[in-house]
TrEMBL record:
Organism in which the protein naturally occurs: Agreia pratensis
GO molecular function terms attached to this record: DNA-binding transcription factor activity; transcription cis-regulatory region binding
Keyword 4Fe-4S: no
Superkingdom of source: Bacteria
Cited Pfam families: LacI (PF00356), Peripla_BP_3 (PF13377)
SUPFAM superfamilies to which the protein is assigned, alphabetical: lambda repressor-like DNA-binding domains (SSF47413), Periplasmic binding protein-like I (SSF53822)
Keywords: DNA-binding, Transcription, Transcription regulation
Gene3D superfamilies attached to this UniProt entry: 3.40.50.2300, lambda repressor-like DNA-binding domains
Protein name from the UniProt record: Transcriptional regulator, LacI family
Keyword Metal-binding among UniProt keywords: no
InterPro entries according to UniProt: HTH_LacI, LacI/GalR-like_sensor, Lambda_DNA-bd_dom_sf, Peripla_BP_I
Amino acid sequence: MVTIRDVAADAGVARSTVSYVLSGNKKLPEKTRLRVLESVARLGYRPDPMARALALRRTNILGLLASIDPSSRQTDVDVFMRFVRAAMYAARARGFDLLMMGSGEDELARDVLADALIVMDIRRDDPRLPVLASIGLPTVLVGYPGDSSPFSAIDLDFKRAARIAVDHLADLGHTEIAVLGLGTDSSEHGFAFALLFREGFLDQCAIRGVRGAVIPNVDDDAGVDAWLDRAQDELPGLSAVITHGPGSLEPFIDRLLKRGLSIPEDCSIMTVAPEEVMRHADRPVTVVDLPGEEMVSRAVNLVLDELSGSVSPGITELLPALVHDFGTTAPYVQGEGGRIFTRR
C-alpha cells in the first residue's frame, strides 16, 4: 500500500507538505503543489479517509447515543425510528452524517469518531455525563437531567405535561387518577422524564384535590391484571388512567375491553406520545403531544451551532405541553366510581 511517506519521498518534499497539498489547509508554491500531485497520480496514492479525518480533527460525523430494547413492550420501534430519521435529516442538512452509537459509558471510554454528540434516554443521575464531560466534545441531551448538568438540553416540559393531564381529567370531574408507570426499570435507572412527570402529577393532584398514584407496570402477559389489582387497592374509585406512550397503551386497552369495559364511559385514558403517531393509530387516544422529531432536530442544530462556536453550552429548552383530544376522555359520572373494577 502506498503511503504518504512514499509520496513525500517521490516528490522530494516533507510529509507535512503532502498533507498540506491534499487538505488545502496551507497555500504553497504552485510548482510544489503540482509536483506532489504528480507523485500522487504516478504512485496511485489514495488517502485513508479515517486517518485524514483524525489528522484534521474533523469527521463531519454526528454521534447519536441512544438505546432501544425491541423485546420490551415499553419500546415503540416505529416512534424511535422517527426520532432517528429526524436526526439524520437535520444532520444531513448541515453537511453531517449520523452515526448510531450504543448507550453505555463503556463505549464512550474508547475513541469517539464524531465531532459532536446527541444523547438520548437521559437519567436523573446519568453515569454517562461525567464521561462525556471528560471527552470534551460538544454534546446536547434530548432529555433534561436537572440544573447540575453542564450540557445543553432539549426536552418536553414533563412536569407541565403531567399538570396539564391532571387538569384535563380533573376538569371532567375525575377524582381518582393513576399513571401506568414504566415499571421497575424506570425507578431503578431513574429516567429523568418519568421522575419529572411523577413529580408534576403528584403535585397537581394535591393542588386539585385529586387522589393520584403512580403505579409501575409489569412487562409481561399478566402485567395489566397485576397492575389493576394494585390499582384497586390504592384507588378503589379509579376512573382515569394516564400512560407513557403506545408501548404500554395497547395491552392495557385490550385488557380493559376483554373485561367488558368501555372507553371512555368506564375509563378515561390519556397518553404521552407524538400527536402525529397517535392521530394515525388504529386506536387514537387523547394525547399530551411528545414532539420528539422537533426535539431531536433542535438538538442537532444546537450541538452543531456549539461546534461552530456560534452559541455556548448550557442552554435548556423545555417545549410546551399541548393536549389533543381524540375522544378517550369523558366527564366522570358522580356515584359510579370504581367502574373499572366492578365490571369484568
